[in-house]
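Aim 2, interim progress: modelling of the 5'-deoxyadenosine-bound target.
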Amino acid sequence: MNISDTVKTLNPRPAYQGEGQEEAERQRGLIEKLKSYPKKPKTFYLSTMGCQMNARDSEKLKGILHEIGAEETTEDQADLVIYNTCCVRENAEQKVYGRLGYLKGIKRKHPGMKIVLCGCMMQEDAVIEKLKKSYPEVDLIFGTYNIYKFPELLLTMLETNDTIIDIWKEQQDIVEDLPSIRKYPFKASVNIMYGCDNFCTYCIVPYVRGRERSRKPENIIAEIESLVQSGVREIQLLGQNVNSYGKGLEEPITFAQLLERVCRIEGLERVRFMTSHPKDLSDELIAAMGKLDKVCPHFHLPLQSGSDRLLKAMNRHYDQARYLDIVRKLRETVPEISITTDIIVGFPGETREDFLETLKVVRESRFDGGFTFIYSPRIGTPAARMEQVDPEESKVNFAELLKVMEEIAEENNARWLGRTVEVLAEEKSKNDSGMITGRTPQNILVHFTAGDRWIGQMAQVRIKETTPFYLIGELA
Ligand code: 5AD
Ligand code: SF4
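Predicted structure of the complex, ligand included:
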């Protein structure tokens, strides 16, 4: 049988184009139908790749599955296996194809199993073509814009043996207000905006997450208020570029003003946000960070490169001097702030001199931590068409960068030795069940000796040992 005979591609234009609330209502009706649907999945396994945005989307998928009565289990036992995919770097994509090979074997032994793929990778045409051609074991494919349609897609999938593919090319409405299962009852992430308009030349995100769209402040505040009422103490505001929050909204508002409104919510103790683009970072935001006690003294400020030439080629719209100026202002305004970053090594055209400029900024900024990546060409982005560099040279530079960053983080963390810090306790430590893991306001990981009853509480912890990546302590 020809594979394409068994593939049903849904109309990419959604039938429904009204207000988000009504659509949420419609999907909730389908959840009710699924609850008593005879062929509904009883168990599921959900694997989430990539960034915080995907993690948040997975909380929504889990919420819906939980609502219909499905329970989480292991990958080889599950009726429904879901991969929420990432495509920022190529190795994330390779991992998905590798897992599909493995699942094919399992599905043979467990024919009722359904395989679902969603997330950023599914927004790439080439990926869909490849899946259609070579992976008939996949039952449902959808993308980033229609995740709220999951109840409807699930039902459609259960009613047919075809592979259902529903990919939209752009966002229609922002539909929130569907069930979601948050990872922790005491800390939560809240989307304040979706998409990205920056088109950094290496990055695929603007192509798979679409144009920037801000949520209305009153909807964000209402969501946080209800989270706080249910016991949440720490909120992380999420967006690809939170500094441009508010553009395009009817009522003009800046990100700093949103932060102020969020901080007025009674009972909320800590506020964080991710991610900031240096180009849009305003003095107003730096001043707000200094003034608002609930905003944690941590700033994630992706550098990407320290070379002015490469920053231009990356379309980043700032230079080394501007970046260092922001770091200086942040340190002047917010005492004890920790600053973390993202850096790419091996961008097209990168010379040793460019790399040394990056090292210089790293040394001057004294980052507390960061994510470092070797450049991965993404089809369709401008940088993929530029002349690539020798991967061996990038590997050498990458190792050197890691070493320098680790040394600095170690020195920075050593300053906490003997001091007492406030830790929001999150979970049992993975390596030692007598210890609890949590984070300081600076977002530094702390393992401390304590019982489970501390989970979800603010603990005062005296630090007795430090490493480049975490601190170790005991209750003060
Ligand atoms: N190759 C390597 N790293 C990338 N990033 C984004 N696109 C690429 C790519 N093509 C990194 C950037 C970004 C982080 C989320 O991922 O550093 O800040
Ligand atoms: Fe990608 Fe740049 Fe947008 Fe970040 S700001 S998501 S790196 S395009």
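The first helix runs from residue 20 to 35. The radius of gyration is 23 Å.
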